[in-house]
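Entry 14. Ran structure prediction on the chain below.
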Amino acid sequence: MSCAIRVANKLNVQEEHLDVERPKSVVLLSVPSIFENGEGSFDFVFVDADKDNYINYHDILLKLVKVGGAIAYDNTLWYGSVAVAADYPMSERIKLLREYIMKFNTYLASDSRIESTILSIGDGLTLCRRLV
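Output, structure tokens:
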């Protein structure tokens, strides 16, 4: 059973409302019951999704997480690539997604709605606390 279907079952969403071919993060954000309680309905959200959409997820999730709540983003050091020069040898995939992660990290650093820190565990984990 796919992750999307397991989550849908927990949320009491019928499987026909899911497009399980889409990335699980897109599926989860498209599940209507997630938005039923409105702004400030979550204490904590963990994000491990398509890196090129992290900024989009952040703007959506920030509305859903209550003031004082937290969002955790996985892979924000991206194999350490964000800490080396752009001409450092790395695969094309890492290089491409490195740009998205760097843009995301910069976006978070300038977002006055949160305070955040990057933990150097695993592949990097950014914790954000909603301030307003």
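The chain has a mean pLDDT of 84. Will compare against last week's run tomorrow.
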